[in-house]
Sequence to fold (383 residues):
Amino acid sequence: MTLSRITGSVSVAFLMLAQSSAGATFTFTHVNSTAAQAVAIEHAAGVWGDILQSAVPIKVRVTFFPLGAIALGITFPNGRRDFSSAPLPQTWYATALANSITGTELNTGESDIDIFLNITANWYTGTDGNPGAGEYDLVSVALHELGHGLGFVGLSKKVGAEGSLGTLQASDFAPLTTSFPWPQLDTLPGVFDRYLSDLQDGPLTLMQNPGTLLGSAMTGNQIYFNGPVVMATNGGNAPRIYAPTTYALGSSCVHLNESTYPAGNTNELMTPFSSAGNANHWPGPLCIAMMQDIGWTLAPDVGLAENVAATEALVVWPVPTEDLLHIRGTLATRQGPGTITDMHGCTVLAFPFTSVINVADLAPGIYFVRCDDAGGYARFIKQ
Fold:
């Protein structure tokens, strides 16, 4: 049986700490979890903690609750927009990511992530990735749901023929309620949405919102994630996003495409469905690269081969910058042309390679410095 991993009895809550020696620390409040379930969930958090870097502990509330026959988990990330050092204005960021970017806690007293897991599912709580034929691997599902809470999530919705970004309401997910106040989204996209592009009609964030063209794109099965880091990781190709002809709130436009990355594929974790007896305890190179695209910094000693090579070859600072961008590395000594591209891959500046570039005229946002004749790149933020 395959259940959806869409992005709670007497209630017993307890707090535990999941530490990573590398990049990020998680704190947990467990509601209705058994001790074995808590261990499995925190094992999953340790995987993310070894991948991502944050000086601010990530606060997660996990509730086991009846979710019916089709869902294994549902996750709600807390959110922030237009905070100090926000790479993109008028854009929602998962609070865990916003805290990591600023280095400060922006939501004192609130959880960063609320996760609901199906209390009726037949969970396998071992950490060895060896569930039985009828068991759902809790580490895999928790790893998936934490990925959503960390920012692998958008703000899409479709009602009738109209699609929209940033119109979700708490009532859309009743009877579930978040432990933090539901924000007024103001028809603004999430940073994940900023990278979504329809193969024919282009970026979703450039379409009328709400609008029928946006609704058509959300159910056209032709949406791709055009992040420069993930495209470099994926041989220049944008990964395909799950956008079936029937829109499914919480599944459509917030997952990698199921048929493109089926069970057994190294990138299967962030697809929308999970089968009993299947386990995957690693996000995969595409997911990790997409996390970099939306703003996460990888922990020390973590990196995709392409990114490591690029970092060694081309380094820029300060990040963020308001005007001058300094360059060093083996590519900085080349005589070939250089370019700066925005997050949609459009060239915004071309220049002869030099040790200093003036980027004062660029709009605030995330950009990539590239050496056209060598393939290296480095990311920076313009404030």
